[in-house]
Write a structure and sequence with these properties.
The protein is an all-alpha fold and about 100 residues long. It is built from four helices and no strands.
């Protein structure tokens, strides 16, 4: 019983610390306090589930980070061409300064 109560108290202090550290969490909202109370009472179940969820998210992030990113973001590496790019001539067709007699 002492183990359960000491774990619940420690987890409650941890959750309170995180709640007051969070700037977006409402300190006057009743539901925030109820969630902390319920999570502290059922810390034996909540804590391992939270750890599993954090590990799953970390593994998914690691897999996304392992995907190779394009190195060159220049004009030639675009997949979608704009109308202006399609209408631009591919060869150099600019008029010459000294046209040759034809």
């Amino acid at each position: 019983m002492t183990f359960y109560l000491s774990g619940a108290g420690a987890y409650c202090v941890f959750l309170l610390y995180k709640m007051f550290e969070d700037r977006e969490c409402s300190k006057t909202d009743r539901t925030s306090w109820i969630v902390i109370a319920i999570a502290s009472m059922f810390w034996v179940v909540v804590l391992p589930l939270s750890i599993v969820e954090l590990r799953t998210k970390a593994k998914a992030k690691a897999q996304l980070d392992a995907v190779p990113k394009p190195v060159n973001f220049g004009k030639d590496s675009r997949q979608i061409r704009t109308i202006k790019q399609v209408e631009e001539p591919q060869s150099n067709t600019t008029p010459k300064l000294k046209p040759e007699n034809s």
